[in-house]
Design a protein that fits this description.
Elements: E1 4-8, H1 13-24, H2 29-42, E2 63-69, E3 75-81, H3 87-94, E4 102-104, H4 105-114, H5 125-140, E5 152-157, E6 163-169, E7 190-193, E8 197-203, H6 205-211, H7 213-222, H8 227-245, E9 252-258, E10 263-267, E11 271-276, E12 282-288, E13 294-298, H9 301-312
Parallel strand pairs: 3-4
Antiparallel strand pairs: 1-5, 1-11, 2-3, 2-6, 5-6, 7-8, 8-9, 9-10, 11-12, 12-13
The structure holds N-hydroxy-L-asparagine.
Length: about 325
């Protein structure tokens, strides 16, 4: 049996290298998902996940995360958790409970503290500076405050055929306190069924939720579509529908992998992602293609160099 992993954005690369070590040695898909996401949560220059994530309107980092086991369909999720280093680990721990498996706000933070999860101030100096700068800009300019947001979403398949999915995000920069996105919501931000495959989302949660897009992809794969066909079929007609009926569609991207390790993505914006199946992880870049298809290319060194500079650029 082969193993595989797909995860959102360039930021998941280093985590996927770690996940590969687990999966290629016969380790468990849940362990691989958690390890991958913890790597992203730990890196202070990724400003939309974990430590270094951008705060809400009040300057507080509030995180959402989820974990799902594709064998048992067990799920755990948290929303609006504060001061906890690894939101994904809290979500995974909650997935082991039949009751009280989705906690929000203070209750989520209390649970993490009570169960010994590492706590820390998640607001880095850099994130604070970006927030202060944005606050000032918003006073003088009519800007859209909600930019600079990405979720790490990861789907892993292990050699036993078990699948798992997880997500973690600090959500939209400058979000209202208490705002919850799609990432902890079953069927919207994530879903996995080891008999079919898994999917996860990143982008404007308010719009992803309107289509329950992760579940739609699983449903299409369950009806015989390849992961790429399922992503294309679930995402592009929905964007059209949103534009027609709601008047607009935010930016979002979906990833999927089936239980054979085949994968797909769909997006309405430039979207980097990482993938590995029986090979070293690679970073690819996707764009919306013609006629409801997705155009996928290898990443260039030029893109990666620019990215590295951008995420580490001094904040003036
Ligand atoms: C949310 N989906 O909170 C997340 C944020 C994100 O790219 O992924 N943005 O809505």
């Amino acid at each position: 049996m082969s193993w595989g992993s797909i995860a959102t954005w360039r930021m998941s690369y280093e985590g996927m290298v770690e996940a590969k070590k687990i999966l290629s040695q016969g380790g468990n898909s849940g362990d691989a998902v958690e390890k991958l996401i913890k790597e992203v949560e730990s890196y202070p220059y990724y400003k939309s996940v974990g430590f270094g994530g951008l705060p809400n309107e009040n300057g507080v980092v509030q995180m959402d995360a989820s974990f799902m086991d594709g064998n048992t369909l067990a799920q755990g999720a948290i929303a609006g958790i504060q001061d906890v280093k690894h939101a994904i680990s809290v979500a995974r721990s909650l997935s082991k409970r039949h009751y009280n498996s989705f906690l929000v706000g203070e209750g989520a933070t209390q649970y993490a503290k009570l169960h010994g999860f590492e706590t820390t101030n998640m607001l880095t100096d850099r994130a604070k500076k970006i927030w202060e700068k944005k606050k000032k800009q918003l006073q003088t300019k009519a800007l859209n405050p909600y930019d600079g947001h990405d979720t790490v979403g990861a789907v892993c398949l292990d050699k036993c055929g078990s699948m798992a999915v997880g997500t973690s995000t600090s959500g939209l920069f400058m979000k209202k306190p208490g705002r919850v996105g799609d990432s902890p919501l079953s069927g919207s931000g994530f879903y996995v069924d080891s008999e079919i495959g898994g999917a996860a989302a990143t982008g404007l949660g308010e719009d992803i939720m309107k289509g329950c897009l992760s579940y739609e992809i699983i449903r299409a794969m369950g009806n015989g579509k390849t992961p790429q066909e399922a992503c294309d079929k679930a995402v592009y007609p929905f964007i059209k529908k949103l534009k027609q009926r709601y008047g607009k569609a935010g930016e979002f991207s979906l990833i999927a992998m089936n239980n054979k390790g085949e994968w797909g993505v769909a997006t309405n914006v430039e979207f980097t992602f990482c993938v590995a199946n029986e090979q070293d992880p690679q970073i690819l870049i996707a764009y919306p293609g013609n006629e409801e298809t997705t155009d996928i290319q290898p990443i260039t060194k030029e893109w990666l160099d620019k990215y590295e500079k951008r995420i580490k650029k001094p904040i003036d």
